[in-house]
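subagent[fold] <- orchestrator: predict structure for attached chain, return tokens only, no commentary.
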Amino acid sequence: MSPRKLILPLALAQFICSFAGSNMNVMITDISDDLDTTVKGVQTAITLFLLIMAILMIPCSKLTDRWRRKRCFTMGLTLYGGGALLSAASPGIGVLIVGNAVLEGVGTALLIPPVYILATLWFSDLTSRAWAFGAISGLGGIVAAAGPLIGGVIATGISWRAAFVFQALVVGTIIVLSRRLDDPLPADPTRPFDAVGALLSAVGMFFVVFGILQAGTNNVLFVVFLVLGLGFLIGFFFYIRVRERRGKEPLLSTRLFRNRTCNLALVTQNMQWLLLMGVSFVVSVFLQEVRGYSAIGTGVVFTAATVGVLVSSFAAQRLAKKFSQRTLIVAGFLLTLAGIGLLLGFVHSSSRVVAFVPGLLLIGLGLGAMLTPSVNVVQSSFPEALQGEISGLSRSVSNLGSTFGTAIAGTILVSVVALGTRSYAVAMIALALFGLIGLVAALRLPTKIERA
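subagent[fold] -> orchestrator:
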């Protein structure tokens, strides 16, 4: 069967994982009222889901070599579907966190690395790979932007719980469609697994993000957890370097960090998802908590971003033929920063919902234009032997960006939500600063992709 026909289940897998990361934003009020919790409680559930994905993405990518990519893909889907059903039936925020953050988070970490590894193995040249990543990452970006609208329609028309039932139904469909997936590489059950490295990296990232969530409410814990997290991550780096020098296989090869092009592209990936999820969370909370919008009303506002991502991501293959990957990434950041500028300017000058449309449209166009090139640069920088590792690192960096976007911007907004427009402005300015970091990294990318 043609690889292009097998892309559908992979794209749908990215679809459902991106939907899970963004659709809850418009249901914050409904969930907090139904489960008798707060905006901060729902933010914690969303952030933990993204965090668990990030901290387990690298270890799970290594398991694809031991267990085969298709097996990990199916296991991840099964866990995800079970978590979605548990979330739909949750009586309180604790059970919701177990179902949504833990089970769906672990399931996503297992199923996403095979998606990008298989696409890389099936498509060898840059143009066809751009098409594959455009279909997969583009759909992920579209749904991350459209998630608020889809979730809003379901939550308003039925219930927020029905949104999780919808996820379970999509997962069942993917399992059926993926039965004919071909895994071109055999499993290697003898391949070692670095459990200590996995633990050090996971604990380090957890403490960093958990510390960020404490900012504004307990600054002592913020500093303590941040220092602990950075300490564990530094320890992780030295540990894998020592392990590698002793001839043992580490969780991550230090070779991955010697490719300047890949390092810069990873920074752009991180910033892209930070901006996407950060803007989504900030605008959603502001519209619901300050402007009093319903779930579907908030979702409708995000249609502009969805249209933007849809237009630019589906033009990925055509754009890749005309422009360098670097040009597309730089242009994407410029459009996104312009969109954030409009969101900041219009919110002060107009109280009408249409004021959000131009900014969200530009952000959608910008993010859609650069999501695929960044993935393409990272994955194409290494040979097949390192695809498992680089895919895990790439997805971990992207999901860590999503986590930071929700945690940082959300913490700023939620900690001073009573201030309304002022807190919204502070959060958006913070996102713009991160966008500038991404732009600087993009400008330093070479036009030609280097191989490690």
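orchestrator: received. Logging for downstream: The chain has a mean pLDDT of 81. Residues 55 and 202 are 5 Å apart (CA to CA).
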